[in-house]
Write the structure tokens for this entry.
Amino acid sequence: MLYHLLYSFRESFHALQVFRYITFRSLGAGLTSLLICLALGPRFIAMLKGKQYGQQIRDDGPQSHLKKSGTPTMGGILILLAVTVSTLLWSDLANPYIWVVLGSMLSFGFIGWLDDYKKIKEANSKGLSERAKMLLQTLFATVVIGVLFLVLGHDTHLNVPFFREFSPDLHFFYWVFAWLVIVGSSNAVNLTDGLDGLAIGPIMSTALTFGIFAYLAGNIKLAEYLYIPHVKDAGELSILCASIVCSGMGFLWFNTYPAMVFMGDVGALALGAALGTMAVITQNEIVLALVGGIFVLEATSVITQRISYKLTKKRVFRMAPIHHHFELSGWAEPQVTVRFWIISLVLAMLGLATLKLR
């Protein structure tokens, strides 16, 4: 809204020309989302406490987590509010990709809210059934993918890093692949959200990386120079990515150990879907698996644990997701969190390195 309102006066006030630059508006959106989280955080947490929206802790988890029972959850609502408001204020609202990613994020956030609310209402840690959750995720992901391919004419070629000339056309199978990326990313981020501050760190580093990728993909000269797919108008997504990064910083102020509030499924499912959707739009799905390696590791550990126990009645890890395995192996919770952050930053740098290794 600010972009459309102020940029229209650029002829009268030359300084307003700065609003044409995505980099400037990304900084503005980032600062806005940060301030929203910091300003509203204390009141929002107090409201959650007043409504007794406390986290339900698994009885079979690490015993040190039992003391967290009752800590306010659904903190992801604050992140979604900050991201949505700042994006709408600073982005070009005529850009269809902004609406696609916001729609993906908020629809998956609705699923997470239903899950969180059910846990609180029924006073257990189960929430929505896996079937109900998957059905809703499939429904919303299919709508997002349909808009991208049927309305916006999105390319169905798979961009493979390290291979300049190899870009196979998946045709209809790209729909299935895109569904896997969006739904898989959403659930993987949700599985990572198990320790204070753990998930928000990799979310920020991944969003920052994809903000760069979106900016480069939207610039035809840079895209051609780097041999990456040019996606017209994708650069505007850098503003949304900056909002995610900085709202994550604001949320971390309250979510760092010992956490005053938890993100909940409402935040984790939503932000994971947003990252997955941006990966599909910029055609960097494979890079997402690298940059979001922490999320992949967490999801893989759960799948491995389930398969192993079903087939052999033996567990590969002391507990899954794998962050609990390290806790039960003697790592303190802040150690697990910070070490996973470090790995995530390294993976983000490796992801950016693929830009030159083509």
Notes: Residues 23-353 form one domain. The chain is about 65% helix and 0% strand. Residues 187 and 269 are 6 Å apart (CA to CA).
